[in-house]
Design goal:
The complex is a heterodimer of chains A (486) and B (492).
Chain A (H helix, E strand, L loop, with lengths): L6 H9 L5 H19 L2 E4 L1 H16 L11 E5 L26 H9 L2 E6 L33 H8 L5 E6 L5 H7 L2 E4 L19 E6 L2 H11 L29 E5 L10 H16 L3 E5 L7 H16 L18 H12 L2 H14 L5 H22 L4 E5 L15 H6 L5 H6 L3 E9 L2 E8 L5 H14 L11
Parallel strand pairs in A: 2-3, 2-4, 7-8, 7-9
Antiparallel strand pairs in A: 1-3, 4-6, 5-6, 5-10, 9-11, 10-11
Chain B lengths: L8 E12 L38 H13 L3 E2 L2 E2 L1 E5 L9 E5 L5 E2 L2 E8 L2 E16 L3 E3 L2 H4 L4 E3 L6 E7 L6 H17 L12 E11 L9 E6 L2 H20 L7 E6 L4 E7 L9 E2 L6 E2 L2 H10 L4 H12 L3 H7 L3 H13 L6 H19 L10 H12 L5 H14 L3 H7 L8 H14 L1 H8 L3 H14 L6 H12 L3
Parallel strand pairs in B: 13-14
Antiparallel strand pairs in B: 1-11, 1-12, 2-6, 3-17, 4-5, 4-16, 6-8, 7-8, 8-11, 9-10, 12-13, 14-15
Helix pairs in contact in B: 1-5, 3-4, 6-7, 8-9, 8-10, 9-10, 9-11, 10-11, 13-15, 13-16, 14-15, 15-16
Classes of the chains: A alpha/beta (486), B alpha+beta (492).
Chain lengths: 486, 492
């Protein structure tokens, strides 16, 4: 359905086309169901609840009291955000039938916006992965080529938007988990500044890196959605005090005089596939043609970013996941003979291989005698990376890079090579380590598959970030391309 | 006395106290701090470590920690950090405890403690290493009556705010350790930082103890005895552990660093775990919390809200009221007692009321409180009532003995002592005519004593006065009796 292909289209259909939200949500649910065997983007649908909420949205619109641009629009949410009275799985066996008694802040803000959550999307277990293969429910497939990964860990949300099931979806980005699947699936994916969106109710992977963000087809749609979930939340101590940014009004289409920084380390010939670099260079040239200036900048500590990321993220994860012990909720192994046996069996049965790998790695990183060599050093690298960006942003307004060194790879291709999988995060992890906002937007194809352009901006400057993204999309059509699906 | 006085070893003790902060809610969650609530009824998703929850620091707990730091002369650090202490246990819901590790909120400081050992009172300055905030764990219940053959977990206590106060190894005997704990407890109660109710586990202690040859500057290998929750158990545990270590050293052995437990029934310590088996807690800064940054203004505000501390008050009582040091110290032992004293002095109509009121509080009132195991703030006795009673005595309208008999009742149910004196006929008898018969009788009965008074033995006059008081049922005005006796015997 046309109205599912963008927020703008949905809005037009609802406000002017005589379509009801109930009809739109039903269409979304039907498309999800039809594509589910092929894509497996969802772990759970909210059919009845979503239709009921859609009727309420219709009533509001009929009264002339819509809550926001999202009111009555079907959206999807990664299954690591909790919602009162419903299960949240994180694609893990360890959470079993866990039902939350409370709402994540992002969920309650979405409810306040009138958006209709039609279902929870698939992910790598506890958001650990770059392919959505590490899910207890099985992998999600890329709508552009079902033999390939949609990326991860928010692969389900990226695929749901790319496949036209929902115009907007939400995910979380710890080291690239929104931007990388957005790149692989040919959609827009925004990771806001760390602290912009409350983490209250986001099941933690790595607390100092996790950030909730959004998938859409266009920068304008993403801006509209982001405005609804950003802003201070007293329940998250790391939430920034600034109010939600006014993003829609910032999308002027004008980039004249803006300086786009091109970090030389990211355009290194040894890094990305030539076809990816070519598409990204063409995109940058397009921005130059629109009036932006290009400037080479340097981020000299980039080569240490992936290592620092995997030390910090796994250290935090090893502690964050200690609560899944079989004592209070979630999976508990049967037949344990002692407390230690209960822990061992519960966690051995409950966690998948990648989660176990990261818990073991993180435990090691923090252990006595290794803390200084690994964790402390990684934090020092983090400080240096922040300084790199501060210096670079003294000379430019936004930074442009490839989102990933490659296009979507084949399912299973990296399953036995975790280090190679980790190295694919080379362009995305720095933004998390430095807390910066970033976006990936489609900028062409390589081998028939979407290529992502990544833009990064200084802390809190989502407005300029999305202004550049929107200006690019006003001049190009890559974001209008849709995969052919049955 | 030192517990190993003849062994040739010096005892070195350092203490870690966990004091529960007096807050309405938990350290990182809005769940109320309760006592005796049904299990798992004083909890919130944060205390249960449900997926997605985040801690938010209780600012009241921070203010109380600052108070404790100021009251112990420590440095309140402008920047401190909460860290995660990671270990698995069923009553630790997150799998880590939020504490402070490399960067505590308070460093340094000291407490002066009064020690009476070997009959000679002295003051000892005990240095503090640090004070930090942390959250309590829950409670594992192994009682078969409740838990059957398993274990049940009660998380009411999980997340309750604690202050950990670490002393330097400045203590040299169990008596000094107990004196330190009593002083620390009093200070924390004084500033309302903690109720420090030991019965309720608000004030728990881990002790570190080692022995070294007398004269040696180096520290010996120490053991740590965990979780002692009464002064008696601290003293008992220290005595037992000192004896154990002395025995080992005297036999030429080596003390092994270990964590110990004390069994009060057997009076012995036993090894819980050896150092080489100690947990690796994998401390790291909690990424869910931002560093605690304190402004000068905030510290000033807390400082301004601090009550006058015991030492300052004690000095003031001596300077302004001319009280003895021991009386001043006794009156400032608790803030409630000091405030009671000051209110009574203010309410009194007597010209210089401080000394008599101090005497009445420290003798009669304290005696009743001790008998009934009460604190002054738990009684019905109003400062104005005590002042009125003292005024009656000082003005000679009743006698000390009559007044003394009213104190217990005032403590128990309060009331108007002036009215009681009227109603019960406890007015002092000052009428010379009414007293002369008694004086005459005493003189006749104690002729020999009368002669001794005439010979200049002033003290015996007091004895004779006592005899008259006895005959009048304690109601005679002592000054009038004295005048009558002196006149009748013929001495000035």
């Amino acid at each position: 359905m046309e109205a599912l292909l963008s927020l703008a289209a949905a809005r037009t259909a609802l406000d002017e086309g005589g379509l009801t939200s109930a009809e739109l949500v039903r269409a979304s649910l039907e498309r999800a169901q039809a594509l589910e065997p092929a894509l497996h983007a969802f772990v759970r649908m909210r059919g009845e609840a979503a239709l009921r909420e859609a009727q309420e949205a219709d009533a509001r619109r009929n009264r002339g009291e819509p809550r926001s641009l999202l009111d009555g629009v079907p959206v999807a949410v990664k299954d690591n955000l909790v919602r009162s009275g419903e299960t949240t799985t994180c694609a893990s066996r360890i959470l079993d039938d866990f039902v939350s008694p409370y709402d994540a802040t992002a969920i309650s803000r979405l409810a306040a916006s009138g958006a209709i959550v039609v279902g929870a999307t698939n992910l790598d277990e506890f958001a650990m992965g770059s392919s959505t293969e590490n899910s207890v429910f099985g992998p999600t497939r890329n709508p552009w080529d079902r033999s390939r990964t949609p990326g991860g860990s928010s692969g389900g949300s990226a695929a749901a938007v790319a496949a036209g099931i929902v115009p907007i979806a939400f995910g979380s980005d710890t080291g690239g988990s929104i931007r990388q699947p957005a790149s692989f699936c040919g959609v827009v994916g925004v990771k806001p500044t760390y602290g912009r969106v409350s983490r209250w109710g986001l099941v933690a992977y790595a607390s100092s890196l996790d950030q909730i963000g959004v998938f859409a087809h266009s920068a304008t749609d993403a801006a509209a959605a982001l405005e609804r979930i950003c802003g201070h939340d007293p329940r998250d101590s790391t939430s920034l005090p600034e109010p939600a940014p006014q993003l829609m009004s910032a999308l002027t289409g004008d980039v004249s005089g803006l300086v786009i920084g091109l970090p030389r380390e990211y355009f290194d010939a040894a890094g990305a596939e030539p076809g990816v670099l070519e598409a990204v260079r063409a995109a940058v040239a397009e921005l130059e043609a629109a009036g932006a200036k290009l400037r080479e900048v340097s981020l000299p500590h980039t080569p240490f970013a992936v290592a620092a990321y995997y030390l910090i993220a796994t250290a935090e994860a090893s502690s964050n996941l200690a609560r899944y012990d079989g004592v209070r909720y979630g999976h508990r192994a049967a037949g344990a003979t002692s407390l230690k046996d209960l822990y061992l069996r519960t966690r051995s049965e409950g966690f998948g291989a990648e989660v176990k790998r990261r818990i073991v790695l993180g435990t090691y990183v923090l252990s006595a005698g290794y803390y200084d060599a690994y964790y402390r050093k990684a934090q020092q690298v983090r400080t240096l990376l922040r300084r790199d960006f501060e210096q670079a942003f003294a000379a430019c307004d936004v930074i442009a890079t490839p989102t990933c060194p490659e296009v979507a790879f084949a399912l299973g291709a990296r399953a036995d090579d975790p280090v190679r999988m980790y190295l694919g995060d080379v362009y995305t992890v720095s933004a998390n380590l430095a807390g910066l906002p970033g976006v990936s937007l489609p900028c062409g194809r390589h081998e028939g598959l979407p290529v992502g352009l990544q833009l990064l901006a200084p802390i809190l400057d989502e407005a300029t970030l999305l202004r550049v993204a929107d200006a690019y999309q006003r001049r190009t059509t890559h974001h209008l391309a849709r995969p052919e699906l049955a | 006395m030192s517990a190993a006085p003849d062994s040739g070893y010096e005892v070195v003790i350092g203490l870690e106290v966990h004091a529960q902060l007096r807050t309405a809610s938990k350290l990182f969650s809005p769940a109320p701090v309760t006592y005796g609530a049904p299990p798992n009824h004083s909890v919130h998703p944060i205390c249960l470590a449900l997926p997605g929850v985040l801690p938010v620091l209780n600012r009241r707990a921070v203010d109380l920690a600052i108070r404790a730091g100021l009251a112990t002369h420590g440095e309140v650090r402008r920047h401190s950090v909460f860290a995660r202490k990671n270990y698995f246990y069923p009553d630790l819901p997150k799998g880590y405890q939020i504490s402070q590790y490399e960067e505590p909120v308070i460093v340094g400081g000291w407490l002066d403690i009064d020690v009476e050992e070997g009959g000679e009172p002295r003051t000892l300055r005990v240095r503090l290493t640090r004070i930090h905030m942390e959250e309590d764990a829950g409670k594992s219940i192994h009682d078969p009556a409740i838990a059957g053959d398993g274990t049940q977990v009660d998380l009411n206590r999980a997340g309750v705010p604690l202050l950990e106060i670490v002393s330097e190894p400045d203590l040299r005997s169990p008596a000094e350790a107990v004196a330190y704990l009593r002083t620390l407890r009093r200070v924390l109660r004084y500033i309302d930082a903690s109720d420090a109710d030991m019965e309720r586990g608000h004030f728990r202690c881990d002790v570190n103890v080692s022995l070294r040859p007398r004269g040696s500057g180096a520290l010996g290998t120490r053991t740590e005895i965990k979780n002692l929750n009464s002064f008696r158990s601290v003293e008992g545990a220290l005595r037992a552990e000192i004896a154990r270590q002395t025995g080992i050293l005297e036999d030429g052995g080596d003390v092994v660093q270990a964590t110990m437990a004390f069994d009060p029934d057997s009076g012995r310590t036993r090894v819980l775990r050896l150092k080489e088996n100690a947990d690796d807690y994998r401390y790291f800064p909690d990424p869910d919390l931002v560093p605690l940054v304190l402004s000068e203004e905030q510290i000033e505000a807390v400082s301004a809200s601090l009550p006058e501390l015991a030492d300052a008050r004690c000095a003031r009582y001596q300077a302004d009221y001319g009280l003895s040091e021991s009386d001043a110290r006794a009156l400032t032992a608790s803030r409630a007692l000091a405030e009671f004293f000051e209110a009574a002095v203010k309410a009194s109509a007597t010209r210089d009321p401080a000394k008599p009121i101090a005497n009445w509080i420290l003798r009669d009132v304290q005696r009743v409180l001790k008998e009934r195991e009460l604190e002054i703030e738990d009684t019905a006795l109003a400062p104005a009532s005590l002042a009125a009673l003292v005024d009656e005595v000082e003005a000679g309208r009743t006698t000390a003995r009559s007044a003394s008999g009213l104190v217990a009742e005032l403590v128990e149910r309060g009331g108007d002592p002036v009215a009681w004196i009227r109603e019960r006929g406890l007015e002092a008898v000052s009428d010379a005519g009414a007293l002369e018969a008694a004086v005459e009788a005493v003189i006749l009965e104690h002729a020999a004593d009368v002669e001794r008074v005439r010979a200049g033995e002033q003290k015996v006059l007091n004895f004779l006065m006592g005899q008259v008081m006895k005959r009048t049922g304690g109601k005679a005005n002592p000054q009038v009796v004295r005048q009558l006796l002196a006149a009748r015997i013929g001495v000035p």
